[in-house]
Amino acid sequence: MAIISPADSPALIPLASQPEDVPFPNARWPEAPIGPAVDAARLQQMIGHAVVDQPPELGTTLALVVVHRGAIVAEAYGPDTDVDTSLISWSMAKSVVHALIGLLVADGRLDVTERAAATEWADPADSRHDITVDQLLRMASGLEFVEDYVDDSVSHCLDMLFGAGSTDTAGYAAALPRIAPADTVFNYSSGTTNILSRLVGSLTGETVGARLAWMHERLFEPLGMQSVEPRFDDAGTFVGSSFLYATARDFARFGLLYARDGVWNGTRLLPEGWVDDARRLRGIDDEGHGYGAHWWVRDDGRGSFQCQGYETQRIRVVPACDLVVVRLGKTPAEHGPTVDGWLDEVVARF
Hints:
alpha+beta, Beta-lactamase, 9-stranded antiparallel sheet, 3-stranded antiparallel sheet, 10 helices, 14 strands
């Protein structure tokens, strides 16, 4: 599980601006026909295979939204799901926490190079005292955390979300020991995200209501994400590792924000360079998958980066062809690579 230095990270493909003739989605999304350069028949055949046929190797596809050049060009829904159905993000919510951190950076209220203040590490003699926000964003803090979704005898993730840590997810994760120096090991960790989410909450309000209002005012409302519903634990922390609900179209709005370099309808929401930091390769897991800062990085020659969640939730952003693809469903982990391969084929149509 390697750490990649900025000097060794591949060059980034530039992000596109919103076409002048396509408005940003406000109350509704702009829609457009599939362009003449795209094999529309093949694309629709692929979508039908996934959403209508529901082949076992792809699992259950509940929603698919394809946004090209800022407009929806294809959309389909599976069993008991439609355009108004809110679905769970699982770990795609981690990328939303990245955006919330970015808003605080834009406001000058947070510096990611400084240590991540946590009561558990307040003592300067504590080995975790010097962990920075940036190291947490890159999953390079050295904190112990076992990200396992099956074996509850070893999984910190299951214990944090559904067991002993469920009432205070950040406190549970922050209490774990440091087992490696910072920037030496990449360790994907839902606990790390909840530590960051608690930090966001501490800077944005004393109550859940105040924190939620800030999230809506600064991120969700500007994007027009009217369906979005973050879930909080008993300690008042947004469980940003896992629990955010929204429609597929609203998840696509979030993807478009990153496809547009953090700019929405002429207003910069995220700091300049924030999206580039998210999509720059900085870590590789034990299966060879690339990671930036709370976004996964695809080695596909198109500069793709994506939010990923349990049961193969995906928001994929593809700079080379100005594409955002949202896929939501229920697919076992062992078939996740097959779904990503199917998404590769969808992207290849453009």
